[in-house]
Structures are given as structure tokens and as C-alpha cells.
Design a protein that fits this description.
With 124 residues, the chain is mostly helical. The chain has a domain at 1-12 and 41-77. It contains two helices and no strands. Helix 1 (2-22) packs antiparallel against helix 2 (45-75). The radius of gyration is 33 Å and the shape is elongated. The chain starts with a helix and ends in a 49-residue tail after the last helix. Residues 31-40 have low confidence and may be disordered.
Length: 124
């Protein structure tokens, strides 16, 4: 189902890009028809401009609808998680943390004792 909506979304994107590129920046919309047709004619400059504007608006609404549909479908059945589930408090392991394996591949490092007092450089 996701693939079908994605293909429809891509076709709408291509049509929307083409529709926007066909429009003139001055609002003339291709300049087809000049002044030879009637004012209400479909191929007059005003008629083509109105048709392209309507088509762009319809394609934009379809684009947003498919975008929202795809985001809802991608969310699916995932359960929400919180970053606080993995927070470790002092001396306690995190809720979701796993215990290290006893036969670990890495060698154990020797434990170092903490210094008894502040370390101050001497001799300068």
C-alpha cells in the first residue's frame, strides 16, 4: 500500500513541477491566444492562466494529502520511546541496558586507585 501511495505522490510531484513551470511570472500563462479569442474563451491568456492556477491549487492539495498519508503510514505501529528510558542514575544501570557477557572478547583493564588528594604540579 505504501508503494502505491508513493508512486501517486511522485506523479503528483512531477505534474506540480510541470504546472508551475508552465506559468508565466507576469500571470499571462504561456501567452496563448493573444487577443483574437473572446474574453471567456479557454485559450485566451486569462482562461489559460485561470486553468493553470486551478490545476496548481488542486495538485498542491493532493501533494499535501499524499505527504500526510505517507507520514502516517510510515509511523505505523511503532511504540513511542523516551530518551529518559536509557538514563543512568549514579550506581544504577539503565532500565534497558544489558549486562555484559562474562566471556567478553576484550581483556579486563587493571583498576586504578583514585588519588587521595589534589594533584598539583611541582618543580617549576
Amino acid at each position: 500500500m505504501t508503494e502505491v501511495v508513493l508512486v501517486i505522490h511522485l506523479l503528483i510531484c512531477i505534474a506540480l513541477i510541470g504546472c508551475v513551470l508552465l506559468q508565466r511570472s507576469e500571470g499571462g500563462a504561456l501567452g496563448i491566444g493573444g487577443g483574437s479569442g473572446g474574453a471567456g474563451s479557454l485559450f485566451s491568456s486569462r482562461g489559460v492562466g485561470n486553468a493553470l492556477t486551478r490545476t496548481t491549487a488542486i495538485l498542491a492539495v493532493a501533494f499535501f494529502a499524499t505527504s500526510i498519508t505517507l507520514s502516517i503510514m510510515a509511523r505505523g505501529s511503532r511504540t513511542p520511546i523516551s530518551v529518559f528510558d536509557n538514563v543512568q542514575t549514579q550506581g544504577q544501570p539503565a532500565k534497558n541496558s544489558q549486562k555484559p557477557a562474562s566471556n567478553s572478547v576484550l581483556p579486563k583493564l587493571p583498576e586504578k586507585k583514585a588519588p587521595s588528594g589534589p594533584q598539583v604540579p611541582t618543580g617549576q
